[in-house]
TrEMBL record:
SUPFAM superfamilies: NIF3 (NGG1p interacting factor 3)-like. It comes from Aspergillus avenaceus. This is ATP phosphoribosyltransferase. It comes from the Eukaryota. InterPro entries: DUF34/NIF3_sf (IPR036069), N-reg_PII/ATP_PRibTrfase_C (IPR015867).
Amino acid sequence: MPSYRLIFFVPPSALAPCKAAIFAAGAGRYPGQGNYTECCWTTPGTAQFRPGDTASLHIGQVGELEMTEEIRVEALCAGEDVARRAVEALKKAHPYERPSYGVYKMEEF
């Protein structure tokens, strides 16, 4: 079964709900001996953006450069269906109008 890695960025205040949502959708599970669940990697960083005139703002001011702390989260998704469900769950739980995320197909060597 192909594996995927979901990577997304989230403000610290929304970290727990976003992780809970993707885990409920099946992300973060490592099958095999031990059957680990709710596995992910998190690391803090700084995001930067300048909202345009039509932005639906969660934070910041239109036209003003905003720098804010965010957390990068990475989680394994076992199968395309899990990856798709996790992305949908992330979009519903995330506070931004459009969360920044990527899904990458993993190779087995």
